Amino acid sequence: QVQLVESGGGLVQPGGSLRLSCAASGSISSIIVMAWYRQPPRKQREWVATIPTTGITSYKDSVKGRFTVSRDNAKNTVYLQMNTLKAEDTAVYYCNAVLARGQSLWGQGTQVTVSS
């Protein structure tokens, strides 16, 4: 089994930056894709960015140029660097992993609040 633990959320002013981390443990060799999602207040969960094991990253249009997803294989960790944050980026951010057998796993989420 794979476990995902997010960290790095918090309160930041508009225009500020945060870096989220998602540490994976367990059967990490079975992971084929990792992604970040978010759920804004009173809205449905939405996709933010994807980083496959091989291939290129992809981003939701509204975060392109501001967010960067990356990975450190030595630490089994995926990051989401978020710059120029806006109020509409306020959400609970979730890490997601898709395994080779098709199972989709989620972390517990981390709150990001962008407010002055």
In words, what does this structure look like?
This protein has no helices and eleven strands. A hairpin with a 4-residue loop joins strand 7 (67-72) and strand 8 (77-82). The chain is mainly β. The model has no long low-confidence stretch (mean pLDDT 95). Helix content is 0%, strand content 56%. It has strands spanning 2-7, 10-12, 18-26, 31-39, 46-52, 58-59, 67-72, 77-82, 91-99, 104-106, 110-114. Strands 2, 4, 5, 6, 9, 10 and 11 form a seven-stranded mixed sheet that branches.
Shape assignment = globular
Total helical segments: 0
Low-confidence stretches: none
Overall residue-averaged pLDDT value: 95
How do the helices and strands follow one another from N- to C-terminus?
A: EEEEEEEEEEE
The gyration radius over C-alpha positions equals: 14 Å
Class based on secondary structure composition and strand pairing: mainly beta
Oligomer: single chain
Main pleated sheet:
7 strands, mixed
Indicate the proportion of strand residues: over 45%
Helix content: under 10%
Give the total of beta strands: 11
For the termini, the CA-CA separation is 40 Å
